[in-house]
Amino acid sequence: MEAFLQALTAGLLIGAVYGLMCVGLGLIFGVMRVINFAHGDFMMLGMYTAFYLFTAAGIQAVFGNAVGPFVAILLAGPVLAVFGYFVHLTLISHVSGTRTASLEGEGHYAQLILTLGIALILQNGGLLIFGSVLASIRTPLSSSAWALDLSSDISVFINKARGIDAIVSLVIMTLLSLLITRSRIGKSLRAAADNPTAATYMGIDVDRAHRIAFALGSGITAIAGGLLATNYPFHPFVGLEYVIVMYAGVVLGGMGSIIGAFWGGMTIGLVQQMSTLILPTQLQNAAIFVVFLLIIFFRPQGFFGRMVERT
Amino acid sequence: MLRIEELSAGYSAKPVLNGVSINVEAGQFVAIVGPNGAGKTTLFKTISGILSPSRGRITFDGNDLLAIPPAQRAHLGIAHVPEGRQVFPSLTVMENLEMGAMTESGRRDWKENIERIFQWLPVLAERRGQFAGTLSGGQQQMLAIGRGLASSPKLLMLDEPSMGLAPSTADFIFDRLIDIRKQSGLTMLLVEQRVAEALESADHGYVLEAGRVVLEGNNETLRADDRVRKAYLGM
Questions:
Q1: Per-residue pLDDT for A102 more than 70?
Q2: What region does A64 belong to: left with phi over 0, alpha with psi -120 to 50, or beta?
Q3: Contacts of A203 in chain B (CB under 8 A)
Q4: Residue A98 near chain B (CB below 8 Å)
Q5: DSSP A105
Q6: Model-level pTM?
Q7: By C-alpha distance, which of A221, A200, A209, A95 is closest to B75?
C-alpha cells in the first residue's frame, strides 16, 4: 500500500512536469500542424540556459540555492521563446503557414527534414559548446522531502524539488489555458488553427499567429526542461530521450488539443512511475508504449481529440 | 468603392478568370451569377488575397488592393463570408463573432453590432455558448454572415450563402440578407447560383461564364434579357 501511494505520488509529480513539456509541443502542433522534431533539443537548450543563468549569470549568488534554480528556470522560458520566435522567422516560416498552404502535403516533407536538421545542429552544436559532461541544476531541495503521514503506519514522502516543480507546472498550465481560452490572442490562435484561410478573412495574420505559438511552445517546454533538470542530469543529446515521450503525450491527449497534451503527459508520468511497482526499471519506457498502444487501440483520437472534420 | 479591372487569375497556367471587370459603388447591392466553375469563388479569393492574379488591378476605396497583404484587407473594411461557411468549429458562436470583430472598427462598434446581429439572426443569441462545429448548416451560414457583420465592414462579400442548404432555409437566409441590406444600407457583393433570387434583390448584376463577364446591367435589364431568362430563370 505504501509503495503504491509512493509511486502514485511520484507519478503525479513527474506527470505534471511531463504534461507541461507536452503542452509546449502540443501548442505548436495544434496551431501550426508542424511536426517539430527539434522540440526535444529546444528543451535541452532550455535546460542549459537555466543552468548557465543559475551558475554563471549570478542568480545563484543573488537568490541562493533554494529559490535561485526556479528563478533561473522561469527566466529560461522567455529566453527560449525569443529563440523560438527567430527560428520560426528565419527557418520554419519558409516551409509552413500561408507560404505552403497550397502545396501538396502542405509542406510537411520539407518541415520534417528541416526540423530534423535543426535537431542535428542543436545536438552537435551543444556537444561542441557545452561538452559531453553531465550537467545538473543542483538544489538542496532535491535531496530533502516532506513526509505526509497518512496514518500511523503509512507515510508518503514528497521530494521538495519535485513538489515545487509540479506546482510551478500547474501554475504555468493554468495561466496558459487562461491565455488560450480567454484572451484575444489565444482565441485568434485557435481560429488560425481551426481554419487558416477563414482566419485570414477575419484579418488575422496567420503567419504571425504561428510565430506566437512557436515562441510560446518553445518557452513552455524550456521551463519544463529546467524543472526536470533539478532532478535529472542532462547532456546535449538529452532531447532525444524526451522528444518521444512528448509526441506520445501529444498523441495520447489528442492531436490538436492543448489541454489534452497536458493529460497525455500526466498519463505517461503516472504509467512510468507506477510500472516500477511490478516491472524492472529498465522496462519503464517499454511500459509507457504498451499502455500508449492500448489507449490508442481503444480511442484512436486520444483523450480530447476531435473527430470533427476540418472544414 | 470596389473596382476590378481586367482581372485574370487561376491556380495554374490555365486561367479561371479571364479579363474580368467589375465595379461596385458605395451603397450598391451587386450580384454575380453564373454556373458552377465560372470562376465566382476564384474572384472572391483574389479579392481577399488568398490567390494572386496574373493580370489586372483591384482598387478598394482608392487603395491598390493587390499591394496590401491578405490579412490587412479585412482591416480596410472588406468582410468575406466564404463559400461553405467556414466557421471556426472548435470556437463557440460568441467566439466566432469575436473573431469577426478583430478589425479596429469591429472592436469599436462591438456592442451595437452584436445587438443588431442578434436582432437579425436571433438563433445566434440562443446558441451563443455552443461550439460552431455542432450547429446545423443553416445556423453555420447565419453565423458566417454574423461574423462578417461583426467587423463593421464597408463591403460585405457573400459567396453562395445558399449552398448546400434546404430551399426553405436558403429562402430564410435570403430574406434576412435583404432585411439587413434595407436596414443598414450596407454595400454588398453577392455571388450566387440561385439566379432568380439574386437578380431580384440586387441593384446591378453580372453574369459570369467560363471566367468572363458575358452580360451586365441593372436588374431589369438582366431579367429582361432572353439568354438570362432561358438559361437561368427557366422562362
A1: no
A2: left
A3: 71-75, 102-103, 151
A4: yes
A5: G
A6: 0.91
A7: A200
